[in-house]
Fold:
Amino acid sequence: MRGRNNKIKMTKARFYIKDKVQEVGYRVHIIQKILNSGLNGTALNLADGRVEVRLEGEKEQIIEFYEELKKVSTPELAGNPGFYDLEFNADLNVPDSMRSSQALMLEQLSKGIVYIAGMNESIKGMSACIGGMDENIKGMNEKLDKLPERIAKELKEVLK
Structure:
């Protein structure tokens, strides 16, 4: 929307996305879309399982962004999430998109580190089990080595 001096009128808005949108990479998906849209904004996980999207830009561009997200289904991420409560509010705090994306990358990295640490513990446990299996296999090999002697001895007794 252009005002008197051909300036673009910027506004701020937010909306919410519900259903299975957390722990599936959906926030990353939204932030990538924001970074590619020319809008400024972020996506925030809320304690109740929703994602809140905050945007800053031209009103028409925000509406277009919102409507496009509603149309495009992402079954690999979140199925068909519900979008609601598009609200325009000039007083909203809209964090910088680049800072939000960097913070998200750090968050994902920290989750990855925790996941890898858990895998490391599992591998240690599996190594201990494998070590025990090695001992069992050695014992079985010793028994198998003695088996031909035992078979031969029993055959001799049967054939007597």
Notes: The beta strands are 10-18, 40-45, 51-58, 82-88. Residues 112-160 form one domain.
